[in-house]
Amino acid sequence: MDTRDLATFATVARLGGMGRAARALNTVQSNVTQRVRRLEEQLGVALFERSRAGARLTAAGERLMPYAARLDALLAEASRAARDDGAPSGTLVVGSLETTAALRLSPLLASYAAAHPHVDLVLCTGTTAELIEQVLAREVEGAFVCGPITHADLVTAPVFEEELALLTAPGTRDVSDLLLQPDLRLIILRAGCSYRQRLEELLARRGIVGLRRLEFGTLEAILGAVAAGLGITLMPRALVGPVWRGGKIAVHRLPRTEAHVQTLFVRRHDMLCSSALLAFQKHVRAGKSR
Length: 290
Fold this sequence. Notes:
It is a single chain. It is built from twelve helices and eleven strands. By secondary structure, the protein is an alpha/beta fold. The strands form three sheets. Strands 3, 4, 5, 6, 9, 10 and 11 form a seven-stranded mixed β-sheet that branches. It has a two-stranded antiparallel sheet with strand order 1-2. Helix 1 (3-15) crosses helix 3, helix 1 packs across helix 4 (59-83) and helix 2 (18-24) crosses helix 3 (29-43).
């Protein structure tokens, strides 16, 4: 099986057509069609259903696609390994929770970029669930996520510790009474957010389940909705310092067993740990200890 045939197959699957794949690969459509047909003949199965609208994966193509994507990532990683001479350089893609990026990473990213000018650093934000999937898919070299995390393919290292707090509209003094209100709503990020899960677990331990949810896409929107009295949320206490001091939000501390959570840096154990990533991890550890 030719790796170039597999790469062409993956491009057609991703773009949904032979012509579109040919343009992306800077070749003619007949070359793309020939490679796909050769792969189909070798495997003895049809990989695409062709139509005027394009090419759609068959069941066999769906089964092959993860292997083609994995091989493509492995070849790219092999190329990076061959060029990595120990001096941090090239592109480094890391992921982070939005809260961690806002609270912890800005000065670290700035000082890392200054210390290693030959590294092109890319930061992707997402929920813990999204970031772990990206690490496992080799789309990012590592990510800051909310612990605990247990996965056979991941190496984890504790980096930061956060104190979570319950946030409500200003003027709320008795959280217990608030939690009993029948129209109480949770102001949360999309599914996969670790703080969303922790808030639901915290309320479930108090016998409160089935609350209505309002989902917002940014931390600023969540804080604004809470300040407006639309509901409650759970966030790192340090994140809302300026808002809290301005009297726009009430911050309610929780018992230590519920409040404290570790932020972990996770990466695949079988993925190349590039010189750029090694330098980044060292830089974060050094910055944390200051």
